[in-house]
């Protein structure tokens, strides 16, 4: 449909999982795409794939837990393509910790990746848009756990709930600049990262997805490409004037009880 024709889209944490799916969907919809990630191998492989499919793409190595690298990644993409029209913050840390066993180091790691990185990437992208007096869109990938989550997600929830609040605050601050900022509270999703997390922290076997699916209303986990299509819509002009929305993309109805 060409929803993102002639747009420059930066996907932070875009080398795998949900971020990579968003990058693929954005290219299919006509965008020029840049992806960031800490490890060059998956990032460069994705760019090769997108380029082979006729897309225009680049990889920027960056650790988004470092505010300077988060800002520098935006500058590098703007230098390469002249501007950034859309930003997606998809990088995330999901390591486990409860209120009682979370160390200051683990807490700081979650804040750095899940909140500080998006904050300073947004700062740099919005500054570029404002300087050019240009409209733009941002989507933050958050989590349904931002509503409270499980006890073993205490530092993750703290950081992601902060990102939900930041999404609304920044959207309010920059609505007169025609910069729309929205968030997506995604539910349980089948990604490479989730597979590694389940095996590392929950002693999951090869059939963990089947077991999880049996406990879910729709009988399956969410899929990255489904989320990607939703994100592309939010980035595009077809989502109209919507800003400051944090949408629950989940099959459970948060707040409802049986």
Description of the molecule:
The protein has a 7-stranded parallel β-sheet, with helices on both faces. Helix 4 packs parallel to helix 5. With 258 residues, it is an alpha/beta fold. The chain has 8 helices and 7 strands, in the order βαβαβαβαβαβαααβ. 45% of the residues lie in helices and 15% in strands. Helix 1 links the parallel strand 1 and strand 2.
Summary tags:
258 residues; alpha/beta; seven-stranded parallel beta sheet; 8 helices; 7 strands; 45% helix; 15% strand
Secondary structure topology:
Blueprint: E1 8-12, H1 17-28, E2 32-37, H2 40-52, E3 56-61, H3 67-81, E4 86-89, H4 104-131, E5 136-141, H5 154-173, E6 179-186, H6 192-202, H7 208-213, H8 224-235, E7 246-249
Parallel strand pairs: 1-2, 1-4, 2-3, 4-5, 5-6, 6-7
Helix pairs in contact: 1-8, 3-4, 4-5
């Amino acid at each position: 449909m060409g929803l993102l024709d002639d747009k420059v889209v930066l996907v932070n944490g875009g080398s795998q999982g949900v971020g990579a799916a968003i990058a693929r969907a954005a290219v299919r919809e006509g965008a020029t795409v840049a992806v960031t990630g800490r490890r060059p191998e998956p990032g460069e492989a994705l760019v090769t794939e997108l380029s082979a499919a006729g897309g225009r793409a680049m990889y920027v190595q960056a650790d988004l837990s470092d505010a300077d690298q988060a800002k520098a990644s935006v500058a590098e993409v703007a230098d390469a393509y002249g501007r950034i029209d859309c930003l997606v913050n998809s990088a995330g840390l999901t390591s486990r910790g409860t209120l009682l066993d979370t160390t200051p180091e683990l807490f700081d790691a979650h804040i750095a990746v899940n909140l500080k990185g998006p904050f300073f990437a947004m700062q740099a992208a919005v500054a570029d848009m404002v300087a050019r007096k240009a409209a733009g869109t941002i989507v933050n990938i958050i989590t349904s756990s931002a509503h409270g989550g499980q006890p073993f997600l205490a530092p993750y929830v703290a950081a992601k709930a902060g990102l939900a609040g930041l999404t609304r605050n920044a959207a309010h601050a920059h609505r007169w600049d025609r910069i729309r900022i929205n968030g997506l509270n995604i539910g349980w999703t089948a990604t490479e990262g989730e597979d590694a997390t389940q095996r590392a922290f929950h002693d999951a076997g090869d059939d963990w997805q089947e077991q999880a699916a049996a406990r879910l209303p729709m009988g399956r986990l969410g899929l990255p490409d489904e989320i990607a299509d939703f994100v592309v819509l939010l980035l595009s002009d077809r989502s109209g004037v919507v800003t400051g929305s944090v949408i629950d993309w989940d099959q459970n109805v948060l707040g409802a009880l049986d």
